[in-house]
Known about the structure:
The protein is built from twelve helices and eleven strands. The chain is an alpha/beta fold. A hairpin with a 4-residue loop joins strand 10 (373-380) and strand 11. InterPro entries: Thiolase, Thiolase-like, Thiolase_C_2.
Amino acid sequence: MAEVGTSGGRKVAVVGAALSDCGRLDDATPYGLHAQAARRALADAGLDRRQVNGFGSAGLGTLAPVEVAEYLGLRPTWVDSTAVGGSTWEVMAAHAADAIAAGHADAVLLVYGSTARADIRAGRRTGDLSFGARGPLQFEVPYGHTLIAKYAMAARRHMVEHGTTIEQLAQVAVQARANAALNPEAMFRTPLTVDEVLAGPMIADPFTKLHCCLRSDGGAAVLLAAEEYVRDCRTAPVWVLGTGEHVSHAAMSQWPDFTVSPAAVSGRLAFERAGVRPEEMDFAELYDAFTYMTLVTLEDLGFCAKGEGGAFVERGRLRVAGGELPVNTDGGGLSCQHPGMRGLFLLVEAVRQLRGEAGERQVRGRDGQIARLGVASGTGGWFCSSGTVVLGR
Length: 393
């Protein structure tokens, strides 16, 4: 393993990680969930909010980092409002680690909260999230090319080119549910079968309902800090070993290959910078708004060759119990929770695993000890962006 740290300067660790209340929260507000997650992450670290001089936020308000920081009583001297969809938080973590390593910040808090489910229930928004119809999207929106249709089209292309079957894609949902069954915080824990996934209502061919993520409310927060803060923290550090980010396209017509996601670049960069190989990972936390995202990200991160994702997942490899590479150990967006831009939840779960705090779903390495290395990789938009973070203890 390479020396712990980023490309230069101080070493960087995740010292606090927490979720707000999650699931069905009809009376919560997004600001309240931000605050709850932030307080819990600071308490987890054992640091005071006055020690936080960096802040990252996206997805809420007109000026996200300004409004949310004010609500939290923070006055940061380093801010980030990067917004690239679900990969936002892995990209922000990369930026924060670089800033801390360079001495531009000492402790950076990343926080997110959403009442996506409650808003629909109360009629404050509809089920369809509009990204607008200007710029490149003007050539797709008039034809009803929705977000889910874009992912469905990409999945169908993989099936045509590589012989991937709908049963193999369904296995991703089945194994995510098996992991969720071990997680008392997961929204859905009842075991699934492939037949049940296939029998659900069609949403966008080839995706039936259970190929798609659930919709929930909830928030998450992660606190990154310089190495000298570690001795004052109440928890063991989880070191940031390497990061990578990449954006590929906005219009589907400009995507060179529907079977290759931007994780092919972000993952390669993260592993190279960490000085480790994919096969050394004890687990992976991957963005899974749809089953195909998990499958293609596994290929692009190098856990199997291109076109072999179907065969890789159908053998039960993704399960915490008995799997060779436990993936989405909390149940993922398919079964645990998905309040919108879920990338920060991937980092929280990775930290819990590396600290040995995951309870019944705890992953252990080949030596029987608590997991030592893990990767979190977020995907944004319609495979438009990717951020990958390699973590270790």
